[in-house]
Amino acid sequence: MVQENTVNDFSKGSVVKNILTLALPMTLAQLINILYNIVDRMYIGRIPEHATLSLTGLGLSMPIITVIIAFANLFGVGGAPLCSIARGKGDIKGAESIVGNAFTMLLVTGVLLTAAGLFFRKPLLYAFGASEATFPYADSYLSIYLLGSTFVTVSLGMNSYINAQGFARMGMVTTLIGAVLNILLDPLFIFTLDMGIRGAAIATVISQLASALWTLHFLTSPKAILRIRLSCMRPCLKTIRDITALGLSNFMMAITNSIVQVVCNATLSIYGGDLYVGVMTVINSIREIVSMPVSGVTNGSQPVISFNYGAEKYDRIKTAIRFMAVSCIAYTTAVWGILHLFPVFFIHIFNTQADLVEAAVPSMQIYYFGFFMMSLQFSGQTVFQALGKAKYAIFFSILRKVVIVAPLTILLPRWISPSVNGVFLAEPVSNFIGGTACFVTMLIVVGRELKAAQKMQIDTAENTGRG
Fold it and tell me: What is the mean pLDDT of the chain?
């Protein structure tokens, strides 16, 4: 056990190097993972005759897809920091219990989500803003995608445990396999077999299956430090409770994203019609692309912070937080400028129809105003989660989306003209308020705790020396 635990020891060597060793392949993995949906949108946006309707139909499906991802985060991202902390303490048995229980919950959740989604998809899609024109396209995609819900929860959820062990390159391969398959199969099913949006869904499900199988192959092999073992899959209520408590932060972030997507689509369908629902789909797609490096750095920092927290290396935690925050702020500031200057370039990745591009340019410049403030929310959330501070992480997840964005999305269109601009303005306002609140609170709470822990270490060392 001791020998196993010396592998990928984040309490040694350069903190920045440890983060970058994880962050670079994680960023690439994030890019590859996003390709699951991005490639679909790129091809769907070029389907002859009904490209915009198909793209809008996919956008209407996204809140339900986001809920599936939320449950993958609940048991995946929720347990990964606990694994890192346990490994930092040298408790391999406890870490494997977390892995096994998470796998069980991801399997059960995937099956339940498939059944519930298929049963309720029609009323949900209409509630989310579907019209008679867009519902057939949304239903065609979603009814097939839901059949692969278990593949999504397993591949995304369990890949977090590969990354938590320090095998970021292997985690990248997991997503690479699915993405390459998706890129190859999309044009085959969409255009060659003339299946349209249904073909995109079939290609995605097959790709997710391949990713899930690869993830399970690695986590049951001798190469993994922490493996999926039958003896650890038996549900333990305490372990599941601990995973769920910490995973609620990411779960709420995804769920609240879904709520905001629903509110945005429903509000835009009132004030701007199907065209502006399509515009929001394009803007959300661009956001997924440009926020990848931020997710890569924060996800790469989390195992390093958690491991050093378990190993009681507090100076290294401070170094990791500083590097993560500064690099994320610098990157998002640069991206804000690029998006403002060259919006058409990014819009054309997904759609080239003149009416959509004309509507999307001003909407995009409003939506991304002050984009750098988003990195404060990401950094603060990551630190709270890495240190096991579930209550803070959950609170700030709810604050930004439910308390700020959703109400503003409904209210601002009544006060601003044209009304659609109010919907897009809600996001930057929430970034400034929620991002600042989260980051400042993190600095105060975590700074105070680390200072106290270091003082205790010094006092203990002095007392031992006197003894």
Answer: 84
CA dist 333 to 48, 330, 373, Å? 37, 5, 9
CA dist 191 to 44, 185, 195, Å? 10, 10, 7
What is d(CA 294, CA 23) in angstroms, rounded to the nearest whole number?
9
* Residue 156 exposed, middle or buried by CB count within 10 Å (0-12, 13-18, 19+): buried
H/E stretch holding 99 reads: helix 92-127
Rounded Cα–Cα distance for residues 274 and 248 (Å)? 33
Answer whether 329's CB lies under 8 Å from 293's CB.
Answer: no
Give the pair of three-digit tokens for residue 266.
């429903």
Q: Rounded CA gap, 328 and 372, in Å?
A: 8
Using an 8 Å Cβ cutoff, are 160 and 76 in contact? Answer: yes
Three-class secondary structure of residue 370 per DSSP: coil
User: 56-99, pLDDT tens digit by residue?
Assistant: 777 788 888 888 988 998 898 788 878 877 887 788 888 889 99
The C-alpha R_g of the chain, in whole angstroms, comes to 22
- Which phi and psi (to 5°) does residue 308 adopt? -70, -25
Element (H, E) at 33: helix 15-44
> Which residues are CB-neighbours of 269 under 8 A, at least 6 positions away?
129, 131, 276, 277
Closest CA to 364 of 269, 259, 284: 284
User: What are the structure tokens assigned to 277, written together?
Assistant: 């629902």
Cβ neighbours around 392 below 10 Å, total: 20
39 pLDDT band, cuts 50/70/90, is low
Q: Which are the contacts of 218, defined by CB distance < 8 A and separation ≥ 6? A: 162, 167, 170, 174, 224
- Are residues 276 and 363 in contact, defined by beta-carbon separation less than 8 angstroms? yes
Q: How many CA atoms lie within 13 A of 92 on its CB side?
A: 14
